[in-house]
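PROTEIN DATA CARD
Card holder: Membrane protein
Chain length: 299
Origin: Chrysochromulina tobinii
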Amino acid sequence: MHPKKGYEPVILWVTGLLTFFAGLINTVGVALWQKNIGNLTGVVTKISLDLANMSGEFGESFAQFWAFVFGSLLSGLLVTARKAPKDFYRMSDRPVRRASIVLIIAAIFLFIGWAGTKHGGWKDDDNSVKFAPAFLAMAMGMQNGMTSKHAHAVIRTTHMTGVATDIGLLMGNILRREFMLIYEEKFEMKEIAADRLSAARKLTNVELESLRLLFVLLFAFFFGGYVGLYMYWTCGIDTLLFPAIVELAMGVGYLYFRTRVRKEGSKLMAEPLGCFSALRARFRGKFGKKKNKKIIEDV
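Structure generated from the sequence above:
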């Protein structure tokens, strides 16, 4: 997981917020249905157990698994990779990125899961099929697919297994590199070349940047689960309205913003998640020069 440059603040905020919602939704799933929504490892295990025991819950777990896959499939249809060539899609002269549509559809799935559980009889009883986890899993699959394509590296927002693995690997890489440099310098009495030392420090900084993002995801998921349980105790299934409304607002807001910015020129849309930073830099460049000019005149 090595970004070529530092992550934009907006990427940290968006991925952190979506990971927070994933932790919150997962807590609601465990509290209400005893099901993990975004972690399919447990779901696949549950499918095998239900099949071996000929349990009636086999269909529910099977539907939840393929619902997550279907959500990722929709993201693949709507969102293109960052590095796609400009002429890859005939419909446009640049890669088509519809993150806003993904967020809107994911929010709709969350609303369906909430409405079905609250008003449609999908509650936890012996005579009803629990369809809500499948709709929530579709929403999780969509956001997971979206963040995986938009970031400089693969980012998973709905489960922490890969995050924990990457944290351990990056910390091990950094420690090994530092120990090797110290060993060569202190014990073998070798003078480390300046270019080699600079390259090592540069790679360490890149990995530290990745670690920062990974820890943001880890704490966001943990905090989402913590807050989600308290919200569930207070609001019950209505807790799902919080991520649904916010994701819908994010999708509609970004869609509106993207439409407005496109009128000003296509350059600002070269990086969809970085367009906010582009506007900010443009604003600072426009007004910062006037401010500096005024200071020079005063001097």
